[in-house]
Predict the 3D structure of the following.
Amino acid sequence: MMLSVWVGASLLSACSFTESLPFGDGADSATTQDVGRAIPYSVTYQGMDPHEERLLAALKENSTAIRLQSRPTPTRAGLERRADDDVERFVRVLRSFGFYDAVVNYDIRDADIGLPNGETDITPDGDKIEAPTGAQNASNPEPTSDTDKKTAVKAGKAEASDNKDKAPDSPALASKAAPEPVILEYRIDTGTPYLLADAEITIIHPDDSRETRSMTDEELKTANLSIGMRAEADPIILAEQSVLDVFRNQGYPLAKAGNKKVLADTAEKTMRVTYEVITGEQARFGKISVVGAQDVDADFIRGYHSWGKGQVYSPQEVTTTRRDLAESNLFNSVIVKPVGPVDENGEIPVEMRVQERDHRSIGGGIDFSTADGPGANAFWEHRNLFGEGEKLRLKLEGSGLQQGASASFRKPQFLRRRQALIAESEVTKYSTDAYDGDLANAFTGIEREFWENWSATYGVTVEYSDLTGADSPNEEFYLGGLRGVLRHDNTNNALDPTTGNRMELSVSPYISLAGAHTQFTSIALNGSQYYAFDDRGHYVLAGRGRIGSIIGDDRSSLPSNKRFYSGGGGSVRGYEYQTVGPLNQDGDPIGGRSVIEAGLEFRARITDSIGLVPFVEGGNVYEGVKPEDVSLMWATGLGLRYYTAIGPVRFDFAVPLDKRENIDDDFQIYLSLGQAF
């Protein structure tokens, strides 16, 4: 037998039915209910598979009796009304899970009456309740011999005599007696689940011609459907949007759903679903209009479109454009969508609707470590300096180790999409154990995004330094060079990543322009990896590594600030800043031409706002262009994290495992914002 069914809320609906509904039981009102007379009850299911966790959860969510269990009714009639309401709800839920022949009944019995021999109930949470095999009804055992029968008669007479004194039929006493608890048992026969036998698409073309065909394997995969799967409501309903996306991806921007038809075979227990798609006209991208632009230039906004002239409409291109506009930090909201009908040229207009955000901001921060002492920074930023998203950032920072000012400028969409013009400058005074003096540098270059999560920066740099190093005299260097950086970053959060990885490869050749002579090329590779053990990212294993080498002049001929150093809060915690590696006779770091670092930490959230982070880190610096060996200086520690909306506040306590007498302290403490890496 074939049954044609139009999918509606009554047949294929996985919605919750817990809205306020009239149950016809005035006794449920908190103002009228006599709590002392209310009948306490528990709920069980018979006939349900305890492994059907999603189904059990849906039944529990939609049950009136369970939802109102803390407000029991004073009469069995009231409980029966709740159960009657649940029967209808349960049938709808079961159908939404593919059990279209399900039958639901219920029974209310005293709680002291056990289950019949061999029967099994389960709780709404799926826990089994079994009757002991061969056990008699404990509350009313049948006498099995003459002696037992006589004893039962005597007991009955004695009970009757006692009952005369207690007068249970007295209205005054009966009204005060607490009702005995009962069990509301739903008897559920799910029947055979219906399976999806076929999925078809009826395509209605612009000329009203129709064609019907089975969905291809690729279309089924896109729609998360498979032939032979249980015919549940959610996948079948949600698949309709995926079917529309198939046609939109083929250049039909106005494709919409028609009537969805479901045909059930009650004899074979199968179901066939047919999705109807009204394609509309195939179109190419047309004119772009911008709505909501105020301070940001409209033509600049249009320039974010990722599609080419005359390109066939593609929702992926629309999504890419929307994402790029949102990531510009110029807008609070961005909507990119096709609007209007397809014109006579076969083009569809596209609307970019934006809501601008504030373009100026100020901020700052503080940090502290036992090695560096307190530090602070402040910045001012303008993200739309000339009306086309130009960002200017001015920053001041100071600590016991360095004090300085910096400026950076970034012009996005420079000459082409996803390319920016970069300019940076810095003036800093250093006072570290490794070197003292002044430094000024500037960089101008291009930043380009390519592929997914990849970017590169390349340009020219000039630098002036007047530094006195631990093993070098006071010399002035005037350097010119190139800077090339290749980056990959697919992490999910800048300050608190839980998944993904980061990689940065930098290559920077330098040559003297005046002053002391030097020539060298610095190469460094940094990387980090993050692995979450749970979906919420509360337990994360994070690791990092760094290697570097300087090719060219010997260490003594290199400017002090261009050498490699290790140790400190951003390197190997537990040791003072820059002290891991070679030291001179006074215990001051002299740096090296190669470096190796490694670190591992386990980030565990104890609560939503508090976390603990045990960690171990190691590193070393070497005089030569490559390490003489791989022996590292190790440290370990424990960190405390306080998670905020802008990122975690970090407090780390670290101790050196390779402590050097009269050089390394017993411990180091660090306080800052964001994870260590």
Summary: Residues 1-33, 134-175 have pLDDT under 50 and may be disordered. The longest helix spans residues 76-96. The radius of gyration is 37 Å. The longest strand covers residues 472-489.
